[in-house]
Amino acid sequence: MSDLTHLDEAGRARMVDVSGKAPTQRMATATAQLTCRPETLAAVAAGTAPKGAVVHTAELAGIMAAKRTAELIPLCHPLPLAKVALRIDPDEALPGFRVTAEVKTVGVTGVEMEALTAVSVACLTLFDMLKAIDRTMVIGGVQVTAKTGGKSGEWHR
User: pTM here?
Assistant: First the structure.
């Protein structure tokens, strides 16, 4: 079991010791999407969704969620985030919303989990705010699209 970084020699869960690592600038981006009926997308565009400013609220929820990732994901290190940007764009071709997050820090571990948490919670918030008018919505495509920094360097999907 010694090859598994989150288990000790006896198989007990542990947070990985990153104290010996040098801080570097780190960035991660993630995307997700929420598909819905065209009428739902139209209601958001017209500002007639029953719960108000759907997109702005979901963007704020995603940013707040990124900041709380270590409280939600066991063994995830708490990080001082330098930037969390979240954008929700309507897409008539889906139909639905495309959600993108970019997270940055200077630290000893990456911010992929923070970016994934941001887009996930933004989609959940969209769902919550629109479920009264559309029960057919689907959240999907949650993925890391890029990361930089650390020993593994730069990666892009």
Answer: 0.92
